[in-house]
Amino acid sequence: MNKIIAFAGSNSKQSINKQLATYVANLVEEAHVTVLDLNDFELPLYGIDHEITHGIPENAKAFLEKIKASDGIVLSLAEHNGAYATVLKIFLIGCQE
Ligand SMILES: Cc1cc2nc3c(=O)[nH]c(=O)nc-3n(C[C@H](O)[C@H](O)[C@H](O)COP(=O)(O)O)c2cc1C
After folding, report:
1. Residue nearest to atom 17 of ligand 1 (CA)
2. Mutation test of ligand 1: which of 23, 24, 38, 79 has the most ligand atoms closer than 8 Å to its C-beta?
3. Strand partners, 65
4. Residue 79 CA: distances (Å) to CA of 15, 51, 57
5. CATH code at position 80
6. Beta-strand runs (E) in 12-94
7. Could you tell me the pTM of the whole model?
8. How many domains does the chain have?
9. 52 C-alpha vs ligand 1 centroid, how far in Å?
10. Which range marks the domain in which residue 80 is found?
11. How many angstroms separate the alpha carbon of residue 78 from the centre of ligand 1?
12. Which residue positions in the chain have pLDDT lower than 70?
């Protein structure tokens, strides 16, 4: 059985993108779906000084491990000011290895 991670590029507690990602992931046949919420992986405002002092945040590592352990992801993005939401960008930076 394929392990699918579904999440939204949004930190809205009523995220419509989270609803969409969850719905779509559950359309995948014979998949075990885990829905993640970026609100459960709080991260600091990121910067080089923070990284030098504290390293990569534990929540970013924990999130990346869940992604790595999956067979696929379903991600739906909220558009903020013409781009993807800042909360997702912080995750993408934090998850770099
Ligand atoms: C700070 C902010 C900026 C936004 N910027 C845009 C935008 O540039 N273009 C757009 O079409 N919608 C924009 N929106 C609307 C969101 O993309 C829209 O409400 C989306 O459905 C929110 O998804 P969510 O419920 O998953 O958070 C913005 C919303 C917020 C809160």
Report:
1. 79
2. 79
3. none
4. 12, 27, 25
5. 3.40.50.360
6. 31-35, 72-77, 79-80, 83-84
7. 0.91
8. 1
9. 33
10. 2-94
11. 6
12. 94-97
